Amino acid sequence: KKNRIQNIFLNRPIMRSWELDHETVVILKKLGEGAFGEVSMGEYTPKKGGKPVKVAVKQAKPEKLTKVQIKEFMREARIMKNLSHENVVKLYGVAAVQEPLYMVMELASNGSLDGYLKKNPDLRPEVYNEMILQAAWGLEYCHEKNIIHRDMAARNCLYGDRQVKISDFGLSRPGPSYRMDSSRKVPLRWLAVETLLQYEYSFKSDVWSFGIVAWEIYMKGIEPYPGMTVAEVNDQVKRGYRMEFPPNTNPEVAKMIMAKCWAEDPVSRYTMTEAVGFLRDFFGIKR
Ligand code: ACK
């Protein structure tokens, strides 16, 4: 079995710089279930005798995964390793010599953003604005690094140290665009109209999904298009239907998202840099 894993990974010199030993990681407590297996809280000791850091560890059990899924797990890690930003979850490395494979990440003390929003429904209004701008900063940074996230959603963001951190790069691909195989199951409520119509992903389809995340934040973590089935969403969004924002949303922000994130034509949408500029000026928040 060890040979099989080694065949898949160890012949790739690109792995070596971010590989780490299983012995440097201690798993402490299960946090939840992810697509490839459990996510746990743990400790990682980068240097012998050094100080351990609290981390989140995603475990993948190769005996349960197909070769394609293992490659996807490694692809996610490879993308994350090139990203370093306050609003993107940090990757320490991957332990790939034994089973289960470990992906060792920054621990976000409050867990997933949608869960945090649901559990804390009475945050100060400024906090929601900050969260939206932080998500925008994180996604702008991914785009600067030529990464289309492709799965922006509050459930794929984490919250820790009062910072939103974009996570779950499992579907991410290099830009500028990507056409998906139509047979794959997708999170339809977050998809841009051109993705619904032509399976087309781009930086601009991420901008659409960012608008949905802003809506989720203002709506305290409820599911987008409440009361509608997935089939209805698919149908209505193609006909031009867009969600309303709650009354407490600033009308200028709601207008910006409707016009500049959910425009039918991707060309008319903002880039993430433009969205960041608008929000930063509007909220008067500096970094
Ligand atoms: O809402 P949660 O507690 O936050 O439940 C999910 C679960 O693991 C499955 O994804 C949590 N989780 C995932 N990655 C991290 C992380 N880096 N830091 C803290 N919690 C995490 C997530």
From TrEMBL:
State start and end of the fragment within the whole protein: 101 to 387 of 435
Write one Gene Ontology MF term: ATP binding
Q: Which UniProt keywords apply?
A: ATP-binding, Kinase, Nucleotide-binding, SH2 domain, Transferase, Tyrosine-protein kinase
Ranges for domain Protein kinase: 25-283
Which positions does UniProt annotate for ATP binding? K58
Catalysed reaction, written as an equation = L-tyrosyl-[protein] + ATP = O-phospho-L-tyrosyl-[protein] + ADP + H(+)
Q: What is its EC number?
A: 2.7.10.2
Q: What protein is this chain from?
A: Tyrosine-protein kinase
Task: Write out the similarity annotation.
Answer: Belongs to the protein kinase superfamily. Tyr protein kinase family.
Q: Which domain of life is it from?
A: Eukaryota
